[in-house]
Amino acid sequence: MNSTTLRYRCFLIAFCVLVLQSVTSTVRSEEATEPPKISVELVEPGIEPRRAIRFTPELGAKQSAEMIIDMQQKVSLGGTAMPSQTIPPQKMIIETEVTEVAANGDISFQFEYTDMKVVDDPNNPSPIAATMEQMLAPMIGATGNGVVTNRGLTRKGKLNIPEGLAPQLKNMLEGMKDAMNRLSSPVPEEAIGKGAQWKVVQRLVANGMTLTQTSTHTITDMTEDGFEMSIALDQNADGQQIENPMLPAGTKLNLDSLDSTGSGTTTVVAGSIFPTNSNVSMNTVANMSINVAGQDQKMKTEMTMKMSLRELVE
């Protein structure tokens, strides 16, 4: 293997990881001309008493949350396992504020990333922790805004990408189209009670790749001001060519298959537009075909992602 081919292969491995990171990310980078289609289907209304769930935050309401994302991945190229590198968890603080509540219930909000750092293990420090922190540092202070309905359906969202981002991180953010929809928790139009179950299907776009996500939500406990629920997630994508400016000239990358499953728990309060507590884990397997300088290779990436979110209360 010559040095050029090796560099391309290493680059493509990094690109594949970035694609999968963006699939599970929780921000949206550019304002969409049309909101993504999301279907919410009630499967089981649950027991009495039932009520219609609507988000009712007050104008000026603020919410601060800490999010920790922990991802680990394995890559094989042409059936040969590539050297793996432990990725330290990333922690970010997000501040949100409600800026308008419309007569129809639509909620406008703004947000800011006030802190972003790598959570390294002092007993087993990662050799890439410092590099990751340097890449993430320009995101501190990044702002954005969005609009969600009082049922948690995203109408639009925007992240103002700051100057000085590493090209890889900037391209990843610019490639994310629909991921903000997973910040909110869409609820059915109908009245529901404990044991209620509904299914949310949405089409997501990430770095030139289109996939479908189906999530099944089940209420496990209901209170006067909110509820707790379990979530089962499934993502899949048909075979497709991936178009992305990060690919080296002359390189063709095709997604052969992508399957992802996950589960988690979430606590929702009607007075907040985003969950107050959430823990989700996902396992993803992606198979890709790569053509570099006329040479075909098969790549398989397996990734495990764990995400936790908790509201910070002063």
Describe this structure in words.
The chain is mostly beta strands and 314 residues long. It contains 3 helices and 16 strands. Strands 1, 3, 4, 5, 6, 7, 8, 10, 11, 12, 13, 14, 15 and 16 form a 14-stranded antiparallel sheet that branches. A hairpin with a 5-residue loop joins strand 5 and strand 6. Helix 1 crosses helix 3. The chain is globular. The N and C termini lie far apart (57 Å).
Question: What is the structure about, briefly put?
Answer:
The protein is mainly beta and 314 residues long.
Give the percentage of residues in beta strands.
over 45%
User: Nearest-angstrom radius of gyration?
Assistant: 20 Å
Structural class: mainly beta
The number of strands is 16
- General form: globular
Termini separation comes to 57 Å
How would you describe this structure in keywords?
14-stranded antiparallel beta sheet, 3 helices, 314 residues, single chain, two-stranded antiparallel ribbon, mainly beta, 12% helix
Give the arrangement of secondary structure elements.
Blueprint: H1 3-23, E1 38-44, E2 51-52, E3 62-77, E4 80-81, E5 90-101, E6 107-118, H2 129-136, E7 143-148, E8 154-160, H3 167-174, E9 191-192, E10 197-206, E11 209-223, E12 226-237, E13 240-241, E14 252-269, E15 277-292, E16 295-311
